[in-house]
Structures are given as structure tokens and as C-alpha cells.
Amino acid sequence: MPPLWALLALGCLRLGVGVNLQPQLASMTFATNNPTLTTVALEKPLCMFDSSAALDGTDEIYLYVLVDLASSRNASVQDDSRTPLSSTFQQTEGGRRGPYKAVAFDLSPCSDLPSLDALGDVARASEILNAYLVRVGANGTCLSDPNFWGLCNPPLSAATEYRFKYVLVNTSTGLVQDQTLWSDPIRTNRLTPYSAIDTWPGRRSGGMIVITSILGSLPFFLLVAFAGAVVLSLLDTGSSDRETTHDSQITQEAVPRSLGTSEAAYTSVNRGPPLDRAEVYTSKLQD
User: Fold this and answer.
1) What range does the domain containing 256 cover?
2) 8 and 135: one domain?
3) What is the pLDDT of residues 98-144, one digit of tens each?
4) 40 near 136, Cβ under 8 Å?
5) From the CB of residue 173, how many other CB atoms can be counted at a distance below 10 Å?
């Protein structure tokens, strides 16, 4: 894979052959998810206007955005005096009634661009990407913030085709010096309905999902059944022990009572009467 600086240099050479070129989507090397639902990342017009006539004063790049409609595909971004349009997102209904100025940034000479060799440095990655890319739709709060007075670059509409144009403006005179062609239509992503998202790997059918659910629940039910069987077994064992203990207690209580009754009867029969007769016999002798 070629280094990043080589890829960018190739892009600059492609854009540097003249201004009759179009803005391009950012390379996948720099923006992996592009476009998104509400943003589009474009390559800045690096080295694009270097072949133009010498410019006096400070130069600035304006980026205009236009919804791709048949009635406005060749819309102009300047008036008859070459003054650039200052129309805003609100005034054009988000680019549906005409182009609006979304971004303005300084023109950096090719020799002043930061080296891409430092792109691996996390601390400088954002700075380097901002030098090479511009993101349309990056400001999500400017429309709702009453204190915002700058150039508003609000989110784009999802599933909508847009065109983009770079304009070189001399800020000393306020006039358009040069401009690119309108880009080809670039469509933002569409929001995927939740019902259309396949959350199962391998695109399983409904029957497979049911079978998988049953098999997944089976170990739980088996565990519950096993636990219930163990509990019932323990309850049955405890009941048998209580019955055996109760029977033994009844037997032990019944035997002593029988022995006690016979002893009492034996004592009363064998010992009681002889004593009574002896006493009677003795009394008679005394008489």
C-alpha cells in the first residue's frame, strides 16, 4: 500500500491540471464512512488554483452546496459584477431553492501543507485531516443557537443528492477570481429501518430461530426439574424418619405401662391378703 503522502500528491496533481474540474469525495484512506446520513467529506482544492493568474491580496475559498434538482443544476454562485453569493442555508431551504455558502477557509499553498508522515501521531491527526479535508454538514447546533452569527454549516438531509462547488475569492476586492465546476451528484446515506436490520449471523430463518430458542431454554428446564426432584426426595426421606420415630415412641411407652400394672396387681394379690389374715389371727389369740 503506498504511503498517505503519495496518495494525496496524486490527488493534488489530478486537480492541478486546471480549474475546470469538480470537487471530489475524500479518499477512503482519510474518511472510511463517507458520506454519512448528514455529512459529506470532500478533498480541499489543494494546488487546484496554482496555475491561475497571479492574485493580489488575500485569497479565500468558498464552498457552495446545492440540492441536485433539474431546475438548478447550472446555478450561478455570483452576480453580474462577479460578487459571490452570500445566501445561507435558511434562505435557500437547505439548498433546494439555490446554492448556499456552507464553508469558507483560507487557501493554503502546496508548499505549506503539513506532512502526512505525522498522520500516525494521534495528537496531530485532527489538525492534518482538517488541512486536507472539508466536511459539509459538520455543525449540528448553529441553526438552533440564537447567539450564533458565523457561517452556518448545518447537517444535510438524509437520502438526498447534493452538488458542490469551490470558488476562489479575492478578499481584497471581494470578487470571484476562479471557480470549479459543480460536482457530480453525491447522495447522503439513507437511514435503515430497524425491521430491515439482520441481527442474526448467517441470516437464519424463522424456523431456525425457534429451534435455537427452544434448545437454548432446554438446559434451564432440565435444571429446574432436577432441583425439584432433589427437593421432593429430601421431603419424602424426612417424612419416613418422622413416622419411624413416632412408632418407636408408642412401643416404648406401651411396654412400661403393662409391666407396671402387673407388678401392682401382683403386689396387691400376693402381699396384701396375707397381711390382713395375720392381723386377724393375732387379734383372736389376744382375745
Assistant:
1) 206-286
2) yes
3) 999 999 999 877 888 888 887 778 888 888 899 999 999 999 999 99
4) yes
5) 13
Which among 69, 65, 60 is positioned nearest to 42, based on CA atoms?
A: 65
CA distance 106 to 273: 141
Backbone angles phi, psi at 67, to 5 degrees: -70, 135
130-144 burial, b at 16+ Cβ within 10 Å, e below that, comes to eebbbbbbbbeebee
177 CB-contact burial (10 Å; exposed 0-12 / middle 13-18 / buried 19+): buried
How do residues 57-97 score in pLDDT, each as one tens digit? 688 999 999 999 988 888 999 999 999 999 999 999 999 99
Does residue 221 sit in the same domain as residue 149? Answer: no
The total number of structural domains that make up the chain: 2
Residue 196 within a domain: no
Looking at residue 37, the DSSP 8-state letter turns out to be S
